[in-house]
């Protein structure tokens, strides 16, 4: 698959990002992979346009596709066994989306998915180095949803003799990459949940030290889980890092729906709920496809502004927000309802986002072992008040598809790459 280039001057590129998709078709469908990569590329370009500090970053996106290869191998076998009166949209949902999850957690199909990803990455790496022999930059991975799990499994198998106990608990054997990724950016990916289901601990199953993992997630995404509590359960007391708000009100999910910035409460250990890995949340996310849910939020009912109330309208004029030349700030009507609305998240003890430490300090870090080498969990800032259960599910489901064109995500990735420009690139080839 041809690269989706972000860099306007390919010879001066500083970073190459291999982008791995999640479940579902990659072409010809709503929220298809290539459409999402195009949106991702546009978001990165818009951030670079307004953030002069980051303009030294020249990044290129190379999509890595595995869905078509898998489904060509399966052929018409699923159609042959489907009852004739199954509604076409339900059948398409089962075969093209939900089945991808089941395929990955079987030995033969899961092995094929990982082999396809590694082979594609190595081929694209060889092509890139052949056409750019003087390239001195870094390679990184971006994994969305199931793609994040695939990338994590591949990285955990890159070092001989490492993670043997954890790798013994799965029946797939990822092949070696020809390069050492500098970053793994997972977006809306249930990596930690899968590790719990497999009975893997972080010490048994972790990526190599040369790769930095940023677990990016939307706070309402039912597919997303934190990684830091896998290191030590006490890290659930440590609020995730919040991504700075970069997007304009016209674009950003919170402003489009009248949200204010989401701030995480300080929670005492005894007040935390027990871990919950409800498979129903995964199914609920997938069911959004049945009704043709779009990642574009313009089709929200016109009266939703009476049901969604911004908690902090002043944040829409925050100095960190950047508005492009062709964009306008949209004013959302205030609710006239005198009755208090249900609050999804109890913010009575919330802390201001600018009080969240940029780095772990001894006084802020829980007494955990082992200590974190760097922050892994990075959450988007979203908060809403809502009095309609249907809208709650709508927003929750759509949150999973918001990463590709969310400029806060694009800004975070570019800034992370920029901050590591001077670090030694990891281009050593495994032979």
From TrEMBL:
Residues 177-419 form the DDHD domain. Pfam families: DDHD. InterPro entries: DDHD_dom, PA-PLA1. It comes from the Eukaryota. PROSITE patterns: DDHD (PS51043). This is DDHD domain-containing protein.
């Amino acid at each position: 698959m041809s690269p989706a280039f972000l860099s306007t001057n390919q010879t001066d590129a500083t970073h190459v990002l291999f982008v791995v998709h999640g479940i579902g078709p990659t072409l010809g469908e709503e929220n298809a992979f290539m459409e999402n990569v195009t949106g991702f590329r546009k978001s990165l370009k818009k951030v670079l346009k307004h953030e002069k500090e980051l303009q030294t970053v020249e990044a290129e996106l190379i999509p890595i596709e595995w869905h078509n290869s898998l489904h060509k191998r399966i052929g018409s076998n699923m159609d042959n066994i489907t009852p004739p009166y199954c509604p076409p949209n339900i059948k398409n949902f089962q075969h093209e989306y939900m089945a991808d999850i089941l395929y990955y957690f079987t030995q033969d199909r899961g092995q094929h998915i990982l082999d396809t990803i590694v082979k594609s990455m190595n081929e694209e790496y060889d092509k890139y180095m052949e056409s750019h022999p003087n390239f001195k930059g870094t390679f990184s991975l971006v994994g969305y949803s199931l793609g994040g799990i695939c990338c994590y499994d591949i990285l955990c198998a890159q070092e001989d003799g490492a993670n043997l106990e954890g790798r013994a608990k799965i029946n797939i054997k990822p092949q070696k990459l020809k390069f050492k990724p500098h970053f793994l950016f997972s977006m809306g990916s249930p990596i930690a949940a899968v590790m719990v289901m497999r009975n893997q601990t972080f010490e048994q199953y972790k990526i190599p030290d040369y790769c930095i993992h940023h677990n990016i997630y939307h706070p309402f995404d039912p597919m997303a889980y934190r990684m830091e509590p896998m290191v030590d359960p006490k890290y659930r007391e440590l609020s995730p890092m919040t991504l700075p708000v970069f997007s304009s009100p016209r674009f950003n999910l919170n402003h489009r729906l009248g949200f204010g910035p989401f701030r995480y409460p300080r929670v005492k250990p005894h007040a935390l709920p027990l871990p919950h890995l409800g498979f129903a949340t995964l199914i609920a996310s997938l069911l959004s496809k049945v009704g043709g849910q779009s990642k574009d939020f313009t089709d929200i009912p016109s009266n939703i502004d009476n049901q969604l109330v911004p908690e902090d309208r002043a944040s829409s004029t925050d100095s960190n927000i950047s508005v492009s030349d062709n964009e306008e700030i949209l004013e959302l009507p205030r609710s006239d309802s005198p009755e208090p609305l249900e609050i999804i998240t109890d913010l009575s003890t919330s802390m201001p986002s600018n009080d969240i430490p940029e780095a772990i300090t001894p006084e802020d870090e829980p007494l955990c072992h082992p200590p974190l080498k760097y922050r892994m969990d990075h959450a988007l800032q979203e908060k809403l008040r809502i009095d309609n259960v249907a809208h709650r599910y709508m927003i929750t489901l759509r949150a999973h598809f918001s990463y590709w064109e969310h400029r806060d995500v694009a800004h975070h990735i570019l800034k992370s790459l920029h901050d590591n420009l001077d670090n030694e690139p990891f281009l050593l080839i495994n032979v």
